[in-house]
Amino acid sequence: MSFAFPESSPFRRSDFIFGVATASFQIEGANQEDGRCESIWDRFCATPGKVANGDDGSVACDHYHRWEQDLELIAELGVDAYRLSIAWPRIMPQEGQVNQKGVAFYQRLIAKLNSLGIKPFVTLYHWDLPQYLEDRGGWLNRETAYKFAEFADIMTQALGDDVYSYATFNEPFCSAFLGYRFGDHAPGLKDDKWGFQAAHHLLLAHGLALPKMRENAPKAQHGIVLNFAPAYPADPSNQADVEAADFDEQQGIHWFLQPLVEGTYPEAIRQQQPLWWPTILPGDLAIIQQPIDFLGINYYTRHVIKAGDHGPEHVRLAGVERTDMGWEVCPEAFTHLLTKLNQRYQLPPIYITENGMAGADKLENGQVIDQQRCDYYQSHLDAVAAAMAEGVELKGYFAWSLMDNFEWAFGYDKRFGLVYVDYASQQRVLKQSAKYFQSFLKQRKEG
Ligand code: FCB
159, 364, 395, 423: most buried by Cβ count inside 10 Å? Predict the structure, then answer.
């Protein structure tokens, strides 16, 4: 039971990095321990109607206490790398104060990863903003960008070059648009202009943090992680649908990537929705556009778009394979996305920092047979290899996720893990998909 890759596959090379990914709020729990302060996600979970079943992050996978076993589990999978994130509320529970207990937790974690020979990929911000900063406007307040740079400075001083790779942000699209524009994520605000303003401040924060990160960790790689869903017109022969799909990519893809690489925001937004344009101070775009050592790309699905009365609308195609999130399984769009971006931009080397699917997994007789996920990984890895064959420089691939965890507004209902978590007992069980990775990586090691 393993993946089937051809002899010539790039994945057989030992320098191609395979990893698994998680994020602090989704796995750690212990949200009132060792001096951690409230985050926007604690507040959001406590707000009735925001998260499925009223679930919250108070226990999650109890990783804060079980971290050692969890790292051993990662080692058992045989992966080269582990992508994790740092809970800012553990590090700076009050304005201007550093909490050594929080810092020490991550220092222990990174030390153990290195001792196991697993490369640490650290994301500094995976959505858990301290609530005291949200109380002052969160990402709508320009000050938050400077606060983030301070936090990034403290964290990279503490971990330095023990970390292989640092990403400033995970998916600023989600923080900005799901959080401040559509209201599906913390802090739950809804205004188009706010979404774009928050996005600008997140990107500014990235640019402000980078020089400090490079200074504190000169040997590490520094970059950012963006999520992309390429958009396809529902009816390719209908010009309005084609334009709507293009607009969906302007706001979802290019609004985030273009300023980083080219130092400009897409004019299409200004032309079509002038009221959404955020306040940008002179010099901001130069701060945002700095060389990065890598771009992390998260891919799950594509969008199918038609022109609606109020802009692009999502179309749900019938007769296509879907995951437990209802997301279409479309590996071809993954290859297409990567080759398209590679043509359009001068990109640094790419890591796929997340890819995976939710399944209605069941633990039966001590086993979880997640065949759909095994097939999903096979087809999406094939899609990555196809992009590489077309010249995309891709250095690694991370499965989302190491284990089932708190899936944001969906709570614990949606299972994305390679490892099944029985939340009542906190027992971890390798799913069949985990065994696929394990046996492929073992074969690769043995040559
Ligand atoms: C991504 C997030 C990650 C996880 C997956 C399913 O948008 O980065 O935390 O929730 O989706």
Answer: 159
Considering all CA atoms of the chain, what is the largest pairwise distance in Å, rounded to the nearest integer?
Answer: 62
Contact yes or no for 400/35 (Cβ under 8 A): no
Is the previous residue joined to 187 through a cis bond, with omega within 30 degrees of 0? yes
CA of 413 to the centre of ligand 1 (A): 14
Q: Which residues are catalytic?
A: 171, 354
Say what the pLDDT of residue 1 is: 84
Mark 281-299 as b/e (b = at least 16 C-beta within 10 Å): eeebbebbbeebebbbbbb
Alpha carbon of 43 to ligand 1 centroid (Å): 19
Average pLDDT over residues 241-263: 98
**pTM for the model:** 0.99
Collapsed DSSP state (helix, strand, coil) of residue 295: strand
Q: How far is the CA of 49 from the centre of ligand 1 (A)?
A: 20
Please list every protein residue whose CB sits less than 6 Å from any atom of ligand 1: 23, 26, 170-171, 174, 227, 298, 354, 400, 407-408, 416
CA distance 313 to 306: 5
pLDDT tops 90 at residue 447: no
